[in-house]
Specification:
mainly alpha, 176 residues, 9 helices, extended, two-stranded antiparallel ribbon
């Protein structure tokens, strides 16, 4: 984590500092430290006393739930951004994500508006052209440019190049 936070090639120093502060505070509250455990004690005149039970804090629970949901929405958008094109993701999933983002932020977010009928048609058309996953092993075994076959031919080239020239010429004639 420290190495990642020290690397500012892709993210501004300001963003790194914001995340560093967030991580420091979140870490203090999520790891069993004195700070995170203080709510479990009552201070008396002589010493802190451990509370026998916990009291449900509705406001804190609401805030934590909203924070978890916001983080989950962020992760879903990060996943969406990792895909070659957002249209490669099921439109129902994206529509639900966009609605959740709007709900969480209380913003209109017009940049997320889509013609969902067209999106579904495009998605269905692309999906209908995909190869059946049950055929994957056969394709990987037989296609000349599959990684498996490229490795095999690379291994053969390496093996034949180690043979003496006279043997290589004979081998080439036999396998041509």
């Amino acid at each position: 984590m420290r190495q990642w936070l020290a690397d500012t090639r892709f993210v501004s120093e300001e963003m790194v500092e914001l995340y560093r502060n967030y991580y420091k505070e979140a870490s203090a509250w999520t790891h069993p430290t004195a700070t995170s455990c203080m709510s479990q004690f009552t201070q008396t005149d002589t010493a802190p006393v451990l509370k026998r039970g916990t009291a449900f804090d509705a406001e804190r629970s609401r805030l934590m739930t909203a924070e978890i949901a916001a983080t989950a929405v962020f992760v879903c958008f990060a996943l969406r951004n990792c895909v070659v094109d957002e249209q490669a993701i099921d439109p129902d999933w994206r529509r639900d994500l966009y609605e959740l983002a709007r709900e969480q932020s209380s913003e209109a977010m017009p940049h997320l508006d889509r013609d969902w009928t067209t999106e579904q048609e495009t998605y269905d058309a692309v999906m209908s052209k995909l190869q059946d996953p049950r055929d994957l092993q056969e394709v990987l075994n037989n296609h000349p440019r599959s990684w498996r076959n490229l490795k095999k031919t690379a291994g053969q080239a390496t093996a034949t190049s180690r043979r003496p020239a006279r043997i290589r010429r004979c081998w080439r004639r036999e396998h041509a």
